[in-house]
Amino acid sequence: MKTHILPAIKLTVLSILLLAVAYPLIVWSMAQFAPNKGKGEVITYNGKTYYTNIGQSFTEDKYFWSRPSAVDYNAAGSGGSNKAASNKEYLQQVQARIDTFLVHNPGIAKSEIPVDLVTASGSGLDPNISVQAAKVQVKRIAKIRGIAEGNLQQLILAHTEKPLFGLFGPEKINVLKLNIALDTLK
Q: Partner of 175 at 20 to 30 A CA spacing, among 20, 50, 65, 89?
C-alpha cells in the first residue's frame, strides 16, 4: 500500500504545482506583453467602455448589424445554441432573421445574405462579420444616413482585417470599430 500511496501523493503535488501554479504564471507573464496586459482591447466611446473582442448588439438600421448571438451577447455564459442544422426551432430562428433582414434591406435577394448575418457563432460572442456581410448593408445605411455608398465602401475597406500572416482565417471586420467610425464620419 505504501508503494502506491506515496507515489500518488507526489504525483498529485507535482501536478498541482505545474498546472495550478507554474502554467498560469507562465500564461499571465506572456499576457503582460499583449495590448492592455492581456485584459482585451478596450475602446471608450461616448462615455461607455467596450471590449472589441466581445460581440456587441447592433440592430438599428443606421448601423452595420452584428452577427446574431445565441447567448444575447452575455460574455459570462458564452456558447452556441447546440441545435442541429435540421432542428425545426433553429430553422425557424434563422428564417426569422432572414425575413427581418430582407424587410430592412429591400432590393437584396435572399441568396445575397451572408450566412454570418443570420446564424450565431459557436461562442455567441463573435465581434466580427465578413466583408460581404458589411457590403450587403451599404445601401440601407447610405440611404438612412445620407452618405454616399462609395464613402461607406471606403470605410469598409479601411476596417477590413486581413488573415493572420496572410494565411490563417478569412478577412473580417470588427463591427464595433466600424460603427464607431461610421458615427464619426462627417
A: 89
8 A C-beta contact, residue 150 and residue 180: no
Residue 58 has pLDDT above 80, yes or no: yes
pLDDT, one tens digit per residue, over 118-168 is: 998 888 788 999 999 999 999 999 999 999 999 999 999 999 999 988 888
In angstroms, what CA-CA distances link 78 with 10, 45, 50, 117? 37, 24, 17, 18
Q: How far is CA 134 from CA 69, 100, 137, 139, in A?
A: 17, 16, 5, 10
What is the C-alpha separation between 113 and 165, in angstroms, rounded? 28
Prediction pTM value: 0.80
CA distance 139 to 61: 11
Please check whether residue 52 is in contact with residue 173, taking contact to mean a CB–CB distance below 8 angstroms: no
Round to whole Å and give the CA distance between 171 and 134: 12
CA distance 74 to 60: 19
Asked if residue 142 lies in contact with residue 148, where contact means CB atoms within 8 angstroms, the answer is yes
Alpha-helix runs per DSSP H in 50-146: 88-104, 131-135, 138-145
Cell 429591400, located at residue: 106
Q: Where are the beta strands (DSSP E) in 46-156?
A: 48-51, 128-129
> Using one digit for the tens of pLDDT, what is the confidence trace for 164-175?
888 888 999 999
Find where cell 445605411 sits: 141
